[in-house]
Amino acid sequence: GAVVSQHPSRVICKSGTSVKIECRSLDFQATTMFWYRQFPKQSLMLMATSNEGSKATYEQGVEKDKFLINHASLTLSTLTVTSAHPEDSSFYICSARPGQGRHEKLFFGSGTQLSVL
Amino acid sequence: AQSVAQPEDQVNVAEGNPLTVKCTYSVSGNPYLFWYVQYPNRGLQFLLKYITGDNLVKGSYGFEAEFNKSQTSFHLKKPSALVSDSALYFCAVRDITSGNTPLVFGKGTRLSVIA
After folding, report:
1. Which of A27, A28, B21, B59 would you call most buried, defined as having the most Cβ atoms within 10 angstroms of its Cβ?
2. Is B104's Cβ below 8 Å from some Cβ in A?
3. Does the beta-carbon distance from B43 to A111 stay under 8 Å?
4. Beta-carbon neighbour count of residue B5 at 10 Å?
5. What is the pLDDT along chain B (115 residues), one digit of tens a residue?
6. How far apart are CA A6 and CA A9, in angstroms?
7. What distance in Å separates residue B43's CA from the closest CA in chain A?
């Protein structure tokens, strides 16, 4: 089946630094990838939709200058948390859809636990 | 706007008993409905989906879900629970009247199966 690789799985950083999270579709091309954020004991919150070759579409309330998304190829999307602060500590998950069909199921990365000290 | 509600934060069930995890949805058009499971320290895994056709959908690990349009529900069920089914379950919906839309997830329900 389709595989989505997300790296790193865990990162600890100092406040004020930037952190990059990579999301790769290993055996399929994904023109669209999605970035979610999961707070403890809460649901997944969609942050942005990443489109290959174009600007990402951010959900309301998500700072695009803080959460930089780059989707430079059909198999790679990156999320950079710039000038991270403790409130950015969270679990970030990417997902991708192999096809363009509306019913195509999403495949998820294993997530990245970000801890900002 | 589409939304999903999972009214139960936690569901406890004894091993061998049937289990139900509830989900209701709201969309302006017709829904595509999904169930995902999240095991500890792992990513989300697809369980099953409803697109069209038979209202009873069978998925992985013996799970099934029934699409009920009148009640706008898509409850997840399993006839006999296993301890290994203990995990976090997410219901998700996509409104098919739109284009390349993402899934909207419910808040999740933690299932604990007790031996």
Report:
1. B21
2. yes
3. yes
4. 14
5. 778 999 999 999 999 999 999 999 998 888 889 999 987 766 678 899 898 889 999 998 999 999 999 999 999 999 999 999 999 899 998 887 765 566 788 888 999 999 9
6. 7
7. 4
